[in-house]
Structures are given as structure tokens and as C-alpha cells.
Design goal:
It is built from twelve helices and six strands. It is of the alpha/beta class. Helix 7 packs antiparallel against helix 8 and helix 9 (about 220-245) packs antiparallel against helix 10 (about 250-270).
Amino acid sequence: MNCFDISGLKGELKYRLTNDMLFHIVMMESDRCLVSLLSSLLSLPLSEITDVEILNPIDYYMYVDAKNITLDIKLELNHTSIVDIEMQVSKEKYWDNRVLFYSGRLIADQRPGKRYENLKNVHHVGILDFEQEDNDAFYRTFRLMSNDGSVYFDKFQIHTLNLRNIANALPADVQDGLVNWGRLFSAGSWEEIQELADEDDVFREAGENMRKAMITQDDLLRRREDAIRDYEWSMNRAKRMAKEEGRAEGKAEGKAEGRVEAVKALMDNLGFSYEKAIDTLNISAEEAEQVKKIL
């Protein structure tokens, strides 16, 4: 008997699969789900995926309350590629820059020495649940290309799957199974998951692992939701304070005090360093000097 059978379940999900801890747990528990997702994201036939090794199994209790850490899944695919998948629900001003930095690190960390022919392919996948400026695409792949449109370097790719844009999916996205994965990530009810499970048994397995995690790891998932909510609240509060308390034009002192309160909010509530708080709030070098003096 399957204790976590989802047949007949109805009602709202307690946690959506966009909860990065739930996502990590489900993919760690089910090789089949992970391989299916990789097949869709990289447009690879299932038969061509012969080996998958997760490189960052984690102690969930170590990271559950971390407010500014994204729980990504880093894996090696077929001994030839490094793939990093992250679930991102909070809009970050410099998300593109951060992804470029960490993706570049996946290349540098390989340390091939003089045997550059052994350099593995790198894929960073961002599954996003926020609106991006100037982007209404559901799925995109970025490669290094020359100005004539030819691919210069295919070993480094960045992929984005934006759940907010699922209505703009292309026929290829449907064929690769990305739309159904998008529906699973966005699902808010058991009825939606059951509908997917009736279409493909891999989603039944995903739903059963979701239910198992919700029953056996409820405390972890709830605390993770709270941590993400606190992060978003603190970020919004800090930005609002920086804007409101330093609004008076020509009052440098008042403006500096507003900046100080915003910086302190990020440092105290989220554990940001002074430098990261300054960068997050987009404070100019001149204003940063004033803030540093007051701090």
C-alpha cells in the first residue's frame, strides 16, 4: 500500500513546488523526476541521460532558516556536464549578474590544469516565479555568440524558465515537456497535480513525493516559507525606509539617516555584510561614505 498516494486528494496545496526546499527534497528523492526534468530543460532524449550525480546533497536543518540563500541543485550529468538548477521566487535587482558570476565559477572551479579538453559543459537553469523586465518568454537559452549570429562557445549556457510567462510557451516547449513541468511548479491544488498525473506517471511520482515531504517534513517546509517571507519583507522595508526617510531634497543629513536605517535593517535582519547592503540598496559611493561615518 502506498501511504502517500495522491489519488482523490482535493484542495489547496500547503506548499507549492516553488518552495526551494520542497523542490530540492522531491528531486533528491526521485531520480526519475530529476532525469525527466533534465530531459525537458536541456531538450535531451531520456535515452541519452545515462548518469546523474547530485554534487550538493544538503543538511536541510542547516539552511532552513537562512533568509538570503537559494537552495540550488548542483549535479554532474553523463560525466560531461555540470548543471545547476535554482528555484527563484524573489525578484532581485541584479539577478542576471549573480547568475553570470556563479555560472562562471562553475567553470573556474573545475581546475582542468593544462588539460583543457577535459573542461565540462556548464548549464545554469533558473526556474523563476517573478516578472522580468523586457522578457515575456517562457523558456530561453543563452549562449556565447559572435556578431554574425554563429555560436562561439557552446560549453557555457544559461537557461531561464519563467513560470509567469507560461501562456507564451512555444510549440517546442510543449514538445519537450516544459509546459507540463511549468504547470507542476505553478500548481496550487491537488486537483491540478492529479490532472498532470493522469497524463504522465512521472508527475504522479512527483506528487507522491511532495505529499510525503509535506507530511514528514512539515516543520522544515513551514520554516523555509517563513524565512523567504521574512527576507522579502525585510528587503521591501529597507528599500521603503531608504526612500521615505531620505526623501527631503537638499537635506543631506536626513537622507543619510534614512540610508543608515535601511542598511542596518538588512544587516540586522538578514545578516548582510555592510558592502552587500550598500550594493543591494544601490547607494552611491558618496552616500556610502556618509552612511559609514554614522554607523
